[in-house]
Batch of 2 targets.
Target 1
Amino acid sequence: DQQVKQNSPSLSVQEGRISILNCDYTNSMFDYFLWYKKYPAEGPTFLISISSIKDKNEDGRFTVFLNKSAKHLSLHIVPSQPGDSAVYFCAASGIGGGSNYKLTFGKGTLLTVNP
Amino acid sequence: KAGVTQTPRYLIKTRGQQVTLSCSPISGHRSVSWYQQTPGQGLQFLFEYFSETQRNKGNFPGRFSGRQFSNSRSEMNVSTLELGDSALYLCASSTQDPSYEQYFGPGTRLTVT
């Protein structure tokens, strides 16, 4: 039972354009969401997070949007740069509902930004 | 601060053997989590340790085990290796509760032949 779903295995965009990566979740106990970026031969690195009390969080070129009613979040990268080419993982956890000391990850989306 | 370190980085084993992977968390971090990454499966949670106690365990067979030492360093062990155990094993550390941000090591690439 996959509780965090990233339905697009890959995404290709042109440099300078917007990249939108999507993530859906099924567990209503999730109330904290994160995005990680992973380059080959490296571990994932934290990018940005959002709590369920917010619907938007921004950090430079990266913005995460949360739609709780739809159980959907998205990561926007504007403008996209070739160095953003990586696998992006969406992750979720339960905080307010009681932490179970883990993050649940999606399967990832490979973003390719073409020069 | 030094990041999360994992040793070895690469390992080749034969079916039926056992393997031990090591993880040193960021200094001051007391929570260590382990994940298995295989192509197309994302990161699957193995277990989490805090102060030498396992607080959560993922849906993996009993061949997968782990422990944490008093200095927060952690090891995971896989016994009776199967071909399907070939994967990237990632360790992550956090201060107290890994439900928030975790910091990952580079991983150990295990190949079972």
Target 2
Amino acid sequence: GAGVSQSPRYKVAKRGQDVALRCDPISGHVSLFWYQQALGQGPEFLTYFQNEAQLDKSGLPSDRFFAERPEGSVSTLKIQRTQQEDSAVYLCASSSGRNEKLFFGSGTQLSVL
Amino acid sequence: QKEVEQNSGPLSVPEGAIASLNCTYSDRGSQSFFWYRQYSGKSPELIMFIYSNGDKEDGRFTAQLNKASQYVSLLIRDSQPSDSATYLCAVNYSGNTGKLIFGQGTTLQVKP
């Protein structure tokens, strides 16, 4: 595709509900990243995939957060039993893998009530 | 803990002036440095990157890096109202990956 595509654009969840956020990276990009951006803050790294392998998940804030990229293309970030502090914009980014130039998607704004 | 610090602003400059945005980082092992622009409600967009000490120019933008002082800056010449956005400084500590540490961003307002 022309760019990184994320869906849904907005998600409202009740506290305790599970959510799944989708990222479709730029075609051919081997590296995929998830970031979390709280209001008024810079993005914070969550996790990184190279193809289907999750090479770094050090930024996931708790075991309620889980990410996968089973076929090395589309990725899903799942948050179980959502809490109010999970409210943020979740950004997906991809790169060709040869450098760190990230291309970000438009993000999913998650609001947990 | 690795940190990237920016003044949140807002930084207000008149149209046509030079805007100077600054960033400091904590880890001397940092390898590469990036400036992203983020319009309100939009995703970050890479505008400059720099790896070596000194200046790097691209159009109206100049990135400056001083590793001894752990300082990186972005100059925007001939500022335009369309430059009004939040500018995020980001640092890579871990080699050739996109694992970046971002500052909180500086909001720039360019007034006509």
